[in-house]
Amino acid sequence: MKKSPSYYTQELREFGEVLRGRRTINLFLQTPVPDGLIMEAVEAATWAPNHHVTEPWHFYLLGRETIDACLGLVRAICTEKKGDAKAGEHKAKSWSEKPGWILITCRTSADELRQQEDYAACCAATQNFMLYLWKAGVGSKWTTGDITRDARFFEIIGIDPDEEFVVSLLWYGYPKMTPTQSRQPTDKALTKLP
Ligand SMILES: Cc1cc2nc3c(=O)[nH]c(=O)nc-3n(C[C@H](O)[C@H](O)[C@H](O)COP(=O)(O)O)c2cc1C
Fold it and tell me: In angstroms, what is the span from residue 157 Cα to ligand 1's centroid?
């Protein structure tokens, strides 16, 4: 009988290390990430699977002026929510230490199934983006905090909430600290059927 080919190559091992090793990064160095790398990561992100090839995503790379407006907004949102200006100040300061900001939106659809599938595709694109950066030594954090649903945020970015909704606000940069994480054993996530 012919032996099945070995699948366990060096490339596969390294690929697995990227998938398992990527961590959500909270603390970043201030070393700038080249824009060229971000462009490549966006291009790689768009190769995510998407049903009917709808390509429902859009990427917004935020510049200094837009980031500053977001910092003002997060200060206001947090102060309003907690009723405490100090809490708002603290949050804005922590967000001001995030070096790179990119937003991924999804096109809205009146068709419920299309909407769900398009959202799934945008999540896959987000993961592609994060993994591409990770392989280049750049960490990121996916956030869906209050700001991503606030009408004032849509105004700052210049998007129409009837046309697009936010899938992920991502911060990226070279990690200052990489946290550890764990997952349940695979047999908890997998059921083999006869
Ligand atoms: C859809 C989505 C939204 C998330 N939003 C937040 C968030 O608002 N704040 C946060 O601290 N982490 C957020 N995360 C990151 C998760 O907390 C993180 O993935 C989780 O702790 C596992 O860590 P790991 O990414 O290092 O494996 C989000 C992740 C996903 C997929």
Answer: 22
What's the gap in Å between 33 CA and the centre of ligand 1?
21
Residue 184 has a pLDDT of 97
Which residue CA neighbors atom 25 of ligand 1 most closely?
Answer: 24
CATH number at residue 153: 3.40.109.10
| Nearest protein Cα to ligand 1, atom 11 | 143
For residue 24 and ligand 1, the question of a CB distance below 6 A is answered with yes
Residue minimizing CA distance to atom 20 of ligand 1: 24
pTM beyond 0.90, yes or no: yes
Say if 58 falls within a structural domain: yes
The answer to whether residue 151 sits within a structural domain is yes
Task: Please name the residue whose Cα sits nearest to atom 5 of ligand 1.
Answer: 143
Using alpha carbons, select from 101, 97, 27 the residue that is nearest to residue 67: 101
> Into how many domains does the chain fold?
1
Which element (helix H / strand E) includes 73? helix 64-82
| Domain extent for 57 | 25-62+99-177
Q: Do the domain assignments include residue 167?
A: yes
Domain membership of residue 183 (yes or no) is no
Cβ-Cβ contacts under 8 Å for 172 (sequence gap 6 or more):
28, 33, 38, 99, 100, 101, 102, 133, 138, 139, 140, 141
* pLDDT tens digits, 73-123: 999 999 999 999 999 999 999 999 999 999 999 999 999 999 999 999 999
